[in-house]
Design goal:
Oligomer: heterodimer
Number of strands of chain A: 9
Distance between the termini of chain A: 57 Å
Number of helices of chain B: 16
Strand content of chain A: 5-15%
Largest sheet of chain B: 8 strands, antiparallel
Helix content of chain A: 40-55%
Shape of chain B: globular
Largest interface: A-B, 35 and 47 residues
Shape of chain A: globular
Structural class of chain B: alpha+beta
Helix content of chain B: 25-40%
Largest sheet of chain A: 5 strands, mixed
Number of helices of chain A: 23
Chain lengths: 447, 506
């Protein structure tokens, strides 16, 4: 991935090859949230591919208009699900962001915000401290510089519900051991919703996993990668590769379990991210091969026994990183249904909620439109709670959605004997509405 | 002409506002992009009307300034022209950008009234949002294709509501002469028209057909009938081992469809049509410069995917699994008696991506999966050749030998699916080529023309045509028919402003 070892030409060659693979069928455009919002060609993947091609062919400093169109891309990868080729848009846009970061001088306000995000979010203790320190400033948001306001908006109004911190160590399986796994706790997630990691730990152990929580893990590199800071991302990736090596020095592990799907998408692609670092490429491949989303893994090994009376009707929101990048769509639904929840799909499920890593911090206007749009669709479903597999979506939807938004594993943990999640403490389980029966949904039809 | 276009655009901006004209040069350029051997067309401008009134104004001004308009609905007519005008220098009216509303969805009578920009995906999503009581008739084409645009180009699906033009009811059309008419029971001179979306046959001539594959006017709304979603849909798939089995397959399907024992059409896909979406020719480790794939390479692909030289797929609809089971048993034994080597049931098909596509199609779920077939060969060139065959095994086999030979002669992989009813099967041939290679473009063009000529010699035309060949096909029609069509065009669009040259008219 890096331009450091092989130089800019490797990135250029890769980008131009990807751009050349685009057949310009245009199947991507209407799947793209920014095209849906703006109806502008250059706000579509097809338009961006052409702009990125021209940017690399020309070389040097990109123009501001091209940078704006690259910045406005969510990297949701919905385009890749409808592409006829398929074009490797993910690596094209990552390369483009890195090129912009290396060759473009942003206005000072943007630079400050981006530097703050890149410095704070991947460092959980510092991020936590900053959130607490920034909370009193929320009331003064209107007087804050324009670019800082979106960051303040995202600061939670109160501390998350108390939860056992995930401390490094090895935790034994309950009952006979089925697997030995490493749990990657996610950087922002540890601070914003520690209950997710606690629920994941309980659930995995109850499912028969010995769980290793690595010492020294900070961030997988996903956030910085999507900001074009590829060297910082590679640094994070190399650290996780080293952690895995140390962990496996005593005994191999069966999976690296990830419960923040944004992280999962990046970790699964470490081989590419570290592709130019010979010392790490094999380790990157090993990490990528072991990486699984928590629902993928639970579907593979089986859930623990289900406790009764956990029935709720749940709207399942597909995080883009799970749906479009990792193609994990059936497992979370099947697990929820297997534990007694009734799962409802959300209309227009292919469209991003606007979280997209750092997108709601850096592109707040488009993020708001998408967040409101998604919340309106959720409101149409006859459901009590929204389940999702990514902390970014939980934060984003939590701002616009009236009903509780919760991580899938928290529901699964509760349904298999864990505590009831605090955010749904006020909701009583009730018999699930509309069980599946073989009858026509239309009163006008007889079959 | 350039001056006329500039003056026309100034008038459009004055009357409809600046936002009625696409501002991006790159976007306008892309409207001329096609998958055709001849390459793209020059588009002079793109207009973005938001209402019937805007369309009326646009047509009036086009008459005044004598410029050619080319209306597109969603602009996803891949392999047939995408959203490009037939000729250079026309002005595209993109109806999909802002006229994309579902105006009415009637769940008592089962119809939707839609504007041209409503896509299969949008209509499907809205039906799901309302409880999934009705289903669309999905196509093999892009989910983002227009429901109206597809129907007006005589597109089709696979369910009992497969005849998309046939399921349209009651148009509102802006004619080339600037007047607006309603068809069907909407033609009554009244403001209240309860039968407009449900009855086509009012007094007088049926004008609806004048707007199919033509250029007499711009349809701005129509009703489309919807089928209630069956509680249980179960597909079945019969695979056949040899290329020559097409005769037996067609003869086996005919009685099942003449009696409507099977409610859906049959998808009869050859190996490459079925497997192509999952594979790439360039990944087969082929020798440099190789053209069509070899018989051995085809055999290996079939083996890998567990499919045959042909696969016939269809579906049953019913209230329960129990209702379907005896029908499945009968149809399975019917196909095994006719030479099928394997029957793949619905559950097994869910695990085979190539057959899952058929499952989505019969279930009215839009999908892009089949479109991956367009990338079987690199380079993005694609032309659909769409003739048909009577449901006679002997004729189908003769035509298969003929087409197979012409594909081989021109160095292209033989990719074909028949969509079969009781009396007729539409044949979907796909010529895939590298449009970056002038030599391949020439060969693809020659292949299409050879196929057209060979079929025409046998008295067989096509159901739809790619824009490179609209004139070619119209020239094959009897002279009196051509004159009649032209007379209608002149009567309704005297200045020829609507899509000049489309389907060889005007």
């Amino acid at each position: 991935m890096t331009t450091a070892e092989n130089g800019p030409s490797a990135a250029r060659d890769e980008v131009l090859a990807i751009a050349a693979s685009c057949n310009r069928f245009g199947l991507c455009i209407s799947a793209c949230p920014t095209y849906v919002l703006t109806q502008q060609e250059n706000e579509s993947p097809r338009g961006r591919i052409e702009l990125v091609r021209r940017m690399f062919e020309k070389g040097g400093r990109p123009d501001a208009e091209t940078v704006a169109h690259i910045d406005s891309c969510l990297s949701c990868l919905a385009c890749t699900t409808t592409c006829g080729v398929p074009v490797d848009y993910m690596h094209l846009i990552d390369r483009a962001r890195a090129h912009v970061e290396a060759n473009y001088q942003r206005p000072i306000g943007e630079r400050v915000v981006r530097a703050l995000v890149a410095a704070l979010v991947p460092r959980p203790p510092l991020f936590g401290f900053t959130l607490r320190a920034a909370r009193p400033l929320k009331r003064f948001a209107r007087w804050m510089p324009r670019r800082l306001k979106p960051l303040l908006d995202l600061v939670p109004a109160q501390d998350p519900s108390p939860s056992e911190p995930l401390t490094p160590g090895t935790y034994a399986a309950e009952g006979s051991r089925k697997a030995r796994v490493m749990l990657v706790p996610g950087c922002a997630q540890q601070v914003l919703a520690p209950s997710i990691n606690a629920a994941t730990m309980r659930l995995l152990r109850r499912a028969g996993c010995e769980v290793v929580v690595p010492k020294g893990f900070r961030c997988c590199g996903s956030l910085t990668l999507h900001m074009g800071r590829d060297r910082q991302a590679q640094q994070s990736a190399r650290a996780l590769v080293a952690i895995l090596r140390a962990t496996e020095a005593t005994e191999a592990i069966d999976a690296i379990v990830i419960n923040a799907s944004g992280c999962g998408s990046t970790v699964k692609d470490y081989e590419h991210l570290l592709g130019d670092s010979p010392a790490y490429v094999v380790g990157g491949r090993r990490v990528g091969q072991l990486a699984v989303d928590v629902t993928e893994f639970l579907a593979r090994i089986g859930l623990p026994a289900t406790a009764p009376n956990r029935a709720l009707t749940v709207a399942y929101h597909d995080a883009c990183s799970l749906r479009n990048r990792q193609r994990v769509t059936t497992q979370p639904r099947q697990l929820l249904e297997a534990t007694g929840f009734a799962v409802r799909n959300i209309p227009e499920s292919h469209l991003c909620c606007g979280s997209a890593g750092t997108y709601n911090m850096l592109q707040p206007a488009a993020a708001r439109l998408l967040g409101e749009r998604k919340a309106a669709h959720i409101a149409l479903t006859d459901t009590a709670v929204v389940a999702v597999g990514n902390i970014g979506c939980i934060t984003q939807l939590g701002r616009y959605c009236e009903r509780p938004v919760i991580h899938t594993v928290e529901l699964l943990d509760w349904a298999t004997g864990g505590p009831k999640p605090a955010s749904i403490a006020h909701i009583d389980p009730s018999p699930v509405s509309a069980p599946k029966i073989e009858q026509s949904p239309s009163q006008e039809a007889i079959w | 002409m350039v001056k006329a276009v500039a003056a026309f655009l100034t008038a459009i901006e004055r009357e409809l506002g600046a936002d009625a004209i696409e501002p991006s040069v790159e976007a306008v350029e892309r409207y001329g992009d096609t998958t055709m051997p001849s390459g793209g067309r020059r588009v002079d401008a793109v207009l973005l009307p938001r209402s019937v009134t805007d369309v009326v104004t646009t047509v009036r001004l086009a008459n005044e300034y004598q410029v050619g308009l080319y209306p597109v609905s969603a602009g996803h007519n891949l392999g047939l022209g995408t959203r490009s005008p037939v000729r250079d220098g026309q002005i595209v009216i993109d109806l999909g950008r802002r006229m994309n509303r579902i105006l009415e969805l009637n769940e008592e009578l089962g119809y939707a009234v839609v504007e041209p920009g409503v896509t299969f995906q949008a209509l499907h999503d809205e039906l799901v949002r309302r409880g999934d009581k009705f289903m669309i008739s999905a196509t093999s084409g892009p989910p983002l294709g227009s429901v109206l645009g597809n129907a007006l180009d005589k597109g089709a699906g696979y369910s009992p509501y497969f005849d998309h033009f046939g399921t349209l009811c009651g148009f509102e059309a802006v004619l080339g002469n600037g007047s607006t008419i309603r068809t069907g029971d909407g033609s009554l001179d009244n403001d209240t028209l309860p039968n407009w979306p449900v009855s086509k046959y009012t007094i007088g001539p049926i004008l609806d057909g004048l707007f199919a594959q033509s250029n007499c006017g711009i349809i701005v709304r129509a009703a489309i009938w919807l089928m209630p979603r069956p509680p249980v849909i179960r597909t079945f798939h019969a695979t056949f081992e040899r290329d020559t089995d097409i005769s037996a397959i067609i003869d086996a399907i005919r009685p099942l469809k003449l009696t409507n024992f099977v409610p859906t059409l049959f998808r009869v896909a050859n190996d490459l049509y079925a497997i192509g979406p999952e594979e790439r020719a360039e990944n087969l480790g082929r020798r440099p410069g190789a053209r069509e794939i070899t018989a051995e390479e085809r055999r290996l692909l079939r083996e890998k995917h567990g499919l045959g030289a042909w696969q016939a797929s269809a579906a049953f609809y019913a209230g329960s699994e129990g209702d379907i089971a005896p029908m499945l048993a009968r149809v399975s034994s019917h196909f095994l008696n006719k030479g099928a080597v394997r029957i793949i049931d619905h559950a097994q098909a869910q695990l085979i991506p190539s057959l899952l596509i058929a499952s989505d199609a019969f279930s009215g779920r839009p999908s892009t999966a089949e479109l991956r077939l367009l990338s079987w060969r690199p380079g993005g060139g694609a032309i659909w050749f769409l003739p048909g065959t009577p449901m006679s095994g002997r004729t189908a086999a003769e035509l298969d030998v003929l087409a197979r030979g012409l594909f081989a002669q021109h160095g292209f992989d033989y990719i074909i699916m028949h969509v079969a009813g009781g009396r007729f099967a539409r044949s979907l041939y796909l010529i895939l080529f590298d449009r970056r290679s002038a030599e391949e473009c020439r060969r693809a063009d020659a292949c299409y023309r050879a196929l057209t000529s060979a079929y025409a010699t046998r008295g067989i035309g096509v159901g739809r045509a790619a824009i490179d060949y609209h004139g070619l096909h119209m020239d094959l029609q009897m002279p009196a028919f051509q004159q009649a069509v032209l007379a209608v065009k002149r009567a309704l669009d005297p200045n020829g402003v609507i899509a000049p040259g489309k389907y060889g008219i005007g």
